[in-house]
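User: Reviewer 2 asked us to show a designed sequence for the structure in our supplementary figure. I'm pasting the structure tokens here. Could you produce the per-position amino acids so we can include them in the response letter?
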């Protein structure tokens, strides 16, 4: 049983260059993404309290994402970067969620699989940031973050397999993965995780 996801397209070098040229802005977006990821994990708990098999792992994920936020915020503080006054809407995530099906079970599956894909994209991009940074504490931080986020991509697929047929999970995962590549490539470049 395969839990890892191979993304349908790679992030561009142009994206990496944009991040490196506007790193403080990237940190602000990164902090927002960690807060949203923590909230997303807890929203699964709130909306699906009957899914006992996955609640402990969702709570652990939410806590880990919040710890990532704390770490990014500490880096921002060291650099004199403030949190943005508001968390703007992430068009990448919005466009993906717009493609979720509407039935309760179908939407639950789609949201889990999208969480996996989004985490895998984050891991891929953290790896690219890590590779582009000069040696030092920031490079080490993004290396460690890359390893953590890669693990998150797998856990949401594993959660889905608790409740849905394996063939259905992987067929829908492939559809959503293709869609994610189209969404990513349709968005303008900016120094943001997505």
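Assistant: Here is a per-position design you can include in the supplement:
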């Amino acid at each position: 049983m395969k839990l890892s996801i191979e993304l349908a397209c790679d992030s561009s070098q142009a994206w990496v260059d944009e991040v490196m040229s506007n790193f403080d802005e990237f940190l602000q977006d990164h902090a927002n993404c960690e807060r949203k990821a923590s909230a997303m994990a807890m929203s699964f708990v709130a909306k699906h309290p009957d899914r006992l098999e996955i609640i402990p792992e969702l709570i652990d994920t939410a806590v880990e994402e919040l710890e990532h936020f704390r770490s990014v915020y500490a880096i921002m503080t060291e650099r004199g970067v403030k949190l943005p006054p508001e968390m703007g809407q992430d068009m990448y995530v919005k466009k993906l969620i717009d493609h979720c099906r509407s039935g309760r079970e179908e939407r639950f599956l789609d949201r889990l699989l999208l969480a996996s894909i989004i985490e895998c994209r984050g891991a891929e991009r953290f790896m690219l940031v890590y590779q582009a940074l000069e040696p030092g504490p920031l490079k080490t931080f993004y290396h460690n973050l890359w390893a953590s986020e890669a693990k998150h991509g797998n856990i949401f697929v594993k959660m889905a397999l608790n409740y849905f047929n394996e063939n259905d999970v992987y067929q829908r995962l492939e559809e959503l993965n293709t869609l994610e590549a189209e969404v990513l490539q349709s968005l303008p470049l900016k120094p943001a995780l997505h």
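For the response letter, you might also mention the following. The mean pLDDT is 94. The helical segments are 13-21, 23-47, 55-79, 91-97, 104-132, 137-160, 166-186.
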